Each structure stands twice: as structure tokens, then as C-alpha cells.
């Protein structure tokens, strides 16, 4: 069955040439750096001084430290030792599928295009071997509070292979996918009825669809070859499958995108009444398709345009009953949440399976090797598939008490609700202002902190708008050094 939303707006006429808008209400906005677009983080080091005086788009900080700060672990510590003594009552489980049908021009995720015959089967075989080894390292009563399948594109797998993926999560790892939140990423082309039926039957509570733009020419500009009709058909199938939460990803800052075309895409998404929307600023990263195209506009003009589009999109969603959860995430009022309230990303561990996945203990963040270049990615996947013994960590970074403080503050502060000061003191025996006086003073000077004096530390609306500068300002000098020394491959 195909579901069609009511009131889907028609595509706008050819928009006017984009202006270079002056951001309104930006007395506290830092000056824009002259870094070329192709040098945008995450591989660019982000010292506090550089982040405060440069572009508001330094780095999307979805984890700390970034994987470019990881290095090979010569001692290859056994997983059993790493997990011994770790709290395991509310773990997060993540399975990475590093395959896509196409590579978008902005993508620097760990993925390859297509797969030779037999590779997905061999990859799932290796994933099963890794899951067995990891489960042996965990406590017998270890429990998972939430799960996610990401990539890449998990729905690149066939329906039968998705069944097997769920079996690995449940039968090997012991995650109850019918009882915990399960989020799965999909693309319009791979969100087929048979795949969606498997995911719905196996307990998926959140289906995230990468759309990026409902305007065909903007999708082409982002090197994402898709048609709007294909997107709408996929959304119809997803709604018909009955997932409790639909998330739609959109991107602003695409070459040629204007406020009118951006709001058109938002309205096209809103016609499907998604429970969640993620609004991502476009980044052009090394070794990606867009990086090879060169710079369509000056960094200063692009920063101003992205900030203006962010504000327009934010206000558009807030006026339509959505609540801002972070700079990127918006949730419709009264919609179900696809997250586990008992899991805290600041303190609870994560188990990642598959090359491209990360695992977190309180002492070590670890993964496999990382690359963006197609040849390098294929080599890493081939090595993973050939691995027989997954009982040891290969790449990672040990954490320190100071880094634990930074991570806790960073991951809390980048959420709109901020952080309970009492929780920080209970964990570390100090206050953020004692541990990070320079950074917090800089945030305050820029107008990025909400009015103080209460029990919470939170960003102001302007601070949320500059989250991609706030996060890097909390990176330690050592992490900045490691990221600067990383050679993209």
C-alpha cells in the first residue's frame, strides 16, 4: 500500500539567486575564518582559540574524541579485561553495515559502494564471529537498553540478510529487540516493502530516512542522485509499515539553495508529520565528492548562508509545534521517543560491532581502522572479513579523568536541555566552572550560555546555533594534536 500525504507543496519556481544574508541578532557571533571550505573539520584541529575566532562550522561533534584521534593499540588489550568491572546494566548496541548503493558527495562515513558477490554474506559471517567474541567478554547479566543499525546503509542488505542481522543482535548479543528501542537508517532506494516488513516485525521503533532535499536539482548538487517521486514513495511505504517514529534527515547549505527552497523541503517533510527531523549543515570534507569540485562561494558567504538557513528552519519547526532537542534534532510535540531513558551517553557503555563501529568503556574507546578513500575502505573491510579472532581491541584511545570531564560536559551541553550541575558534581566532585573556567568564560563572552544561576548549565539559542564551534572549544590539546597529525586516507 502506498500512502500519500495531504497538502504536499508543489516544487517552487526557480528560486532567486541566493543572497548573502546578514545573520539577525548576532552580536555575539564570532568572526568568520578564512579557512577554505575543503579544510573543514573533523580532520582540522580545533583549538579553543581557533574555534572561538573562526567559522561557526568547525566540526560536527557526535562523539568525543573523534576517531581521527584513535591510534593503533600495540598491546591489543583483551576485550574481557576492558569490560571487567564496567557497569553493564544499560548498554547501547550498535551494528555497522558499511555498504551503500551510491556515495553522496558530502559523505565521509565509513562505507563502500556496492559489494562483489558474496561480500555481504562474508561480512555478516564476520559480524557473527565478532558478536560471539564480544559477548564472551561481557558479564553474564549484561543488558542492552537500546540498539541501532547504522552505516553506510543497513537497508542495503536484503530482507533475508536483515533477518540475520537481527538474529545476531538478539541471539548472539542477547538484545531483546522487541523490548528496547531500535533505530535503523535507510535510503529511499533501499526502503523496499520487504525490507521494511522485516524491520517492523523484528521490533524497529525508529526508521530514519536520509532525504537531504526534496528538490531534485539540490539533490544532484549534493551528488545524491534521487528523484522526489522516489522519496515520496519510500515515505509512503515507511508510514504503511507502521514504525512508531519516522525521522527525516535534511541538509542546508547546498549550492544554490535559498531560504525559499529550504522551507519548501521542510514543508514537504512536514506533510508526512514525522516524529523527528534532523537538520544538518552541509560540510565539505577531505576526500569526498564535493571536496573535489572546489569552492562554489567564499567561506564567509557560505557560513552566513548556513546560519541564516539554520535560523529559518529552526523557527519554521518551532512555529509548527516541534521542540528543539539539539542544534540538529527536532521532535514533534507529544510524539513517542525512540530512546531509552535509562541510558546515559555520558556514563553508560556502548558495544559496537562491524568495522566502522566504535565501542566505549570508561577506560578505552576503541574501534577498527578508519578511512574515507574507496580503496582504503575496501582494504579495511576485506581485512575485517578475513579476521578470525575478535577478542582484542585494535585501534582506540585511552581516556583520562580530565577527558572524562570534557566528554561529560560536551555531550551534555550540546543538548538543548543542558546539564544538571548536581549530576556533574556527583560524578566528579567539582563544578564545570572549576574544571573549565577559560572555556566557559569564552562561551559567556560570546552570549552562548543561557542565563546562569539555576541548577542547570545550558546553551542559549545562539549557543545552540554555534554548537559546532562550542564542541571543538572543549577538545583537549592532546586530542587536537592527534587530530592534526592524522593523515586522511
UniProtKB/TrEMBL annotation:
SMART domains: Elp3. Gene3D superfamilies: Aldolase class I. Residues 85-323 form the Radical SAM core domain. The keyword Metal-binding applies. Keywords: Iron, Iron-sulfur, Metal-binding, S-adenosyl-L-methionine. The keyword Iron-sulfur applies. InterPro entries: Aldolase_TIM, Coproporphyrinogen-III_oxidase, Elp3/MiaA/NifB-like_rSAM, HemN_C, rSAM, rSAM_sf. Residues 1-22 are annotated as: Disordered. PANTHER family: COPROPORPHYRINIGEN III OXIDASE, RADICAL S-ADENOSYL METHIONINE DOMAIN-CONTAINING PROTEIN 1, MITOCHONDRIAL. This is Heme chaperone HemW. It comes from Kitasatospora aburaviensis.
